[in-house]
Amino acid sequence: MHPSIRAILFDADGVIVHPYRFRAWLEREHAITPAMTAPFFNGVFSRECLVGQVDLADALAPWLPQWGWRGTAAEFIATWLDVENAPDERMLAAVSSLRRAGFTVCLATSQEANRAAYMRKAMGFETHFDRLYFSCELGCQKPEPQFFQRIQTDLGLPAGQLLFWDDIPGWAAAARALGWQAEVFSGYESFEQTMTHYLGYDFNIRR
Predict the structure, then answer these.
(1) Based on the number of CB atoms within 10 Å of its own CB, is 188 exposed (0-12), middle (13-18) or buried (19 or more)?
(2) Distance CA 19, CA 87 (A)
(3) How far apart are CA 207 and CA 203, in angstroms?
(4) Residue 3 scores a pLDDT above 90
(5) Chain segment 80-115, per-residue pLDDT in tens
(6) 175 belongs to a structural domain
(7) What is the pTM of this model?
């Protein structure tokens, strides 16, 4: 084991999960475009749903008629969860490999309550990871310092022993500003190469 790293944390969408499939599905199947949904996602969803202040169904209620969605909010959410159930199997295999090597491996992600519960149970992340950190349960989200500080406190480890992977450079930079080691995820191959550098041995789960 690398002498300085004890815990490795991963963002969900864009790292462990193939991202943003539902927005493409909405446009393809219902002509609900990203431009139509952007005010919702950039507004109440990001500000309040992701930190557990507002229920997603309640937040969606005034928007669905504007978008022309003919079903219920519950049906919208259920479809959303199903379409976004797209884990990257290579990354899950990497998570398993790192756990077998003795690292504490965690998910650290901004999610609202419905998807957090779905990831935990339906997607099986509670068995894939040692710990799951969701913004809706922490009451704060990336890149707020509190998000990282609350996770570090829960893990009980010095900042320098934490390695964080996120696909958004600003989120990785926020972790780095607090003393964490952090890398920007841009694809599996570069992830594998960077992990080899950190661990000091060839990290190749396909062997």
Answers:
(1) middle
(2) 9
(3) 9
(4) no
(5) 999 999 999 999 999 999 999 999 999 999 999 999
(6) yes
(7) 0.95
